[in-house]
Amino acid sequence: MYVYLISAEFNTHDCQPQGEDVEFTSQFGGQIMFHQRRLNGGEVVCRIEHTELTFVGQAFRLGRYPIHFHINGDMSGSYVRGSSIHHSFNRAINIHNSHNILIENNVVYDIVGGAFFLEDGIETGNVFQYNFLAGVKSSTSLLNDDITPAAFWITNPDNIVRHNHVAGGTHFGFWYRMLEHPTGPSATNHICPQKVPLNEYYNNTVHSCGWYGLWVFETYDPTEGGTCQSTVSKAAVFRNLTAWHNKRCAESVECSAIQFIGHVCVANELANIEMFHIHRSNVETLVEDTVIAANFDTPRAASTKRGLVSPLNLGLIVRNVTFINFNKQQNGERDCAAIGTVQIICTCMTRCGGFYVEFSKITWANSDSKAYTEWEFQFNLADLDGTLTGGAPGSHVYHASNLLPPECQIRQDFTLFSDHLAVSCPPRAPGKGATSIRIAITDIFPESLRYKNLIVSTRLVITILCTCMHGICELYILYSCQHIMYMLYVLHLYYW
């Protein structure tokens, strides 16, 4: 190992850190820390290559990691490459308020807590490429973040993550977790990681993780310029992820301008791609050029429950996506369908939805289980070019309803179970077809209005929605969450 310290006091050191057997039982291993007296002082350059570190890191002690870059500022020219870190008791490489470090061609195995960890959310310009990580495990001896660890814990999107492979772990492959402001010793209100544009996420692979391959949680609204005052959205393109046998391939939660492009997602247990909420933005939220497969087409192969889960908001565009092996006969009675809608605990679990999703350039392969509808008005799938339904461009897919005109036809290929039928409606023409209008009314006030009739009038039709109890009426929800009661009306008007 070569550690270059720019100082007249030190020279080049050559060593091989390795713990003793007693250190394995006590979880008290070696550590390497790089720190300088002045931020951006240029006093330290680290170059570690072709080095094996084992039985390293110290459990129950913050700041005691196998390799720790600690509050250095700019570290251009520093790197860790061609090395291995295994059987660590406390993470692998921790970067804390240090920037422009190269981490490449390393093998990391059997790590307790987050492996590659950006600590405060202020770290930028670091490059993680061509690394292989396996066996990243939950820790009960560190922070809450390490209880649900990620192989890559990214707290500022202005870093490069490309050509990496994650194989196995208790929780996440890649977790982009941006807070409103940096925390810890780097805390400042003048930097807003949630608005910083994504530098690069490209050509990463993750499989066999207990939770998600890629998780963008909780809030991310990338903007041009990335300052706290920035308001113009900029696309965050997560490109070319390959993921299988995780709980989910990729999921975004409270985000805008997220684009999943070029992914290959196969046999992830609950969903291949899922989005919770889309914030309003001038930039498309997009799933494009992606392959979504239910399984590997082998005997008794495990299948995903949903291929694509649409959000509880308007705005998702699905373009040039191939769905494979969503086949009723092949998957038997399993609850497996290509398209579904998100269900969020303490937000909306049933009788919600009705959101509009646009589809174009869709390819189906060995798939006759194209969607799962559970209640009326659950979604509005718009077929822009005829490739979603095989019908006329401009057609729409809805849950069956007696409000729809006779031109709408039952579609068994969009019906997973016979008691929840889906229909395809042709594009609207004078005197024919259907157009839907979604109206949602939440937080009814005063409370005396609850359980009252809602009358909605248009020039063409008057619809009266009658009050009913939860579980019987499909037109509203009465839902309890943490002892807070609220009502959500979801109304669709169809006129022709």
List keywords for this structure.
22-stranded mixed beta sheet, disordered N terminus, mainly beta, disordered C terminus, single chain, 496 residues, 3 helices
What does this structure look like?
The protein is mainly beta and 496 residues long. It folds into 3 domains: 1-228, Pectate Lyase C-like (3 Solenoid), CATH 2.160.20; 235-434, no CATH class; 436-495, no CATH class. The protein contains 3 helices and 38 strands.
Average pLDDT, rounded to a whole number, is 85
As an assembly, this protein is single chain
CATH architecture of the largest domain: 3 Solenoid
| Structure summary, number of beta strands | 38
Tally of distinct domains: 3
What is the molecular shape? Answer: elongated
How many helical elements?
3
Topology record:
Blueprint (H helix, E strand, L loop, with lengths): L20 H6 L5 E3 L12 E3 L2 E5 L10 E8 L4 E3 L2 E5 L4 E7 L2 E3 L2 E6 L3 E3 L8 E3 L2 E6 L6 H4 L2 E5 L5 E3 L2 E5 L2 E5 L23 E10 L2 E9 L15 E9 L3 E8 L2 E4 L2 E3 L4 E8 L6 E9 L12 E5 L5 E9 L3 H4 L5 E5 L13 E6 L2 E3 L13 E5 L11 E5 L9 E2 L11 E4 L9 E8 L11 E4 L4 E4 L10 E6 L2 E12 L1
Parallel strand pairs: 1-4, 2-5, 3-6, 4-7, 5-8, 6-9, 7-10, 8-11, 9-12, 10-13, 11-14, 12-15, 13-16, 14-17, 15-17, 16-18, 17-19, 18-20, 19-21, 19-22, 20-23, 21-24, 22-24, 23-25, 24-26, 25-27, 26-28, 26-29, 28-30
Antiparallel strand pairs: 30-31, 31-33, 32-33, 34-38, 35-36, 37-38
